[in-house]
Amino acid sequence: MTYCVGLCLKDGLVFLSDTRTNAGVDQIGTFRKMTLFQNKDRFFTLMSAGNLAVTQAVKEILLQGQLLNGESLWTVKNTHDAAVVVGDAVKQVYERDQIALEKAGIDFNCNLIFGGQIKGERPRLFNIYSAGNFIEATPETCYFQIGESKYGKPILDRVVNFSTPLNLATKCALISMDSTLNSNISVGLPLDLLVYEKNTLKPSKLVTLDESNPYFQMIHQLWGEKLRSAFNSIAEPSWSGVNKSSAISAPAKRMNPVPVHHQPPKKKKAQPATKSIKPVKKPLAKKKA
């Protein structure tokens, strides 16, 4: 499995991906899931999740600059059209491999985060699906996740918005990843992190992090400590109602209490009337003459 997160913010983009793949508990591998495309007037980043053979095939089509409906990542005029090219590459792999995959009982599974900037427009971010269609991030929904997304989502929802500075968003993305690593063994180190500052058209802040990285070590340790500290600082529920701020037995306004059904007493079965048994009289023994 995998976990990738991409954020589209006022000042640029943040991309973070793990490198673990697994097809079972004894088939674990390390494969890079982040791919960069750079030219003098454009910069794109692609992160992938799903069937590794499918996503590698899509990546190879894009790297070769193969024309899809007359365009490639190197010729399109805007980032939206670049996302269309990526979607067309997914469709091409589907048309080539789907029948064989179905015969083998394998799903065509491909999910991508794609973003970047072409000179003259703002940075943009897209989530591209297995069908080749996609959606774009907006100021209201400024991030996408693919893979094992549920563990890292709460921190993103609570902290990140379109105006979040890039450094703060980077910290939030790494905490999101640390929470995922802690809860799911199918996501693993090393991590690839890219912080793209808008209008630079180059990967000025690009790093691979492993267990020896001091900043990620610090996040892993402190985040666990702060969570435990925050947990312990919250009052326990008061069932007696003495402490009103933590009273838990206050009645709900929208629903009545859950009814408690008591089992009715079992009826006693009527005992059958006992027949009185008359003693059997033994015949008197005859006296011998």
- What's the average pLDDT? 93
State the fourth-level CATH superfamily. Aminohydrolase, N-terminal nucleophile (Ntn) domain
Helical coverage, percent range: 25-40%
Major beta-sheet overview: 5 strands, antiparallel
Verbal overview:
The structure is a single chain. By secondary structure, the protein is of the alpha+beta class. The chain has one domain (3-226): Glutamine Phosphoribosylpyrophosphate, subunit 1, domain 1 (4-Layer Sandwich). The protein has 5 helices and 12 strands. It has helices at 52-63, 79-103, 153-159, 166-183, 214-233, and strands at 3-9, 12-17, 20-22, 28-30, 34-39, 42-50, 110-118, 124-128, 134-136, 143-147, 191-197, 205-209. It has a 5-stranded antiparallel β-sheet with strand order 10-1-2-11-12, with helices on one face. A 5-stranded antiparallel β-sheet has the order 5-6-7-8-9, covered by helices on one side. Strands 3-4 form a two-stranded antiparallel sheet. The protein is elongated and about 135 Å long.
Write the layout of secondary structure elements.
Elements: E1 3-9, E2 12-17, E3 20-22, E4 28-30, E5 34-39, E6 42-50, H1 52-63, H2 79-103, E7 110-118, E8 124-128, E9 134-136, E10 143-147, H3 153-159, H4 166-183, E11 191-197, E12 205-209, H5 214-233
Antiparallel strand pairs: 1-2, 1-10, 2-11, 3-4, 5-6, 6-7, 7-8, 8-9, 11-12
Helix pairs in contact: 1-2, 3-4, 4-5
Which features does this protein show?
single chain; 289 residues; alpha+beta; Glutamine Phosphoribosylpyrophosphate, subunit 1, domain 1; 5-stranded antiparallel beta sheet; elongated
